[in-house]
Amino acid sequence: MSIVNKSFVSIDDLNKKEIETIFQRAKVFKKLNSQKKSFKSACFANTDQELNALLFFAEPSTRTRISFEIACNKLGIHPVLFLDIHSSSIAKGESLDETLSTLKCLQPSVVILRYKGSQFKFDDSVPVINAGFGSYEHPTQALIDAFTIEEAKGSVKCKKVLILGDVLHSRVSNSNLKLLKRLGAEVAFCSPTSLIPKDPLWSDVTCFSNLNYSLEWADVIMCLRIQEERHGMSIGLSLAEYRDNYHLGWDQLRRIKSDCIILHPGPCIIGVEMSREAFTDKRSLIKNQVTNGLFIRSAVLSLILDFKWLA
Ligand code: NCD
Question: Is residue 4 part of a domain?
Answer without folding.
Answer: no
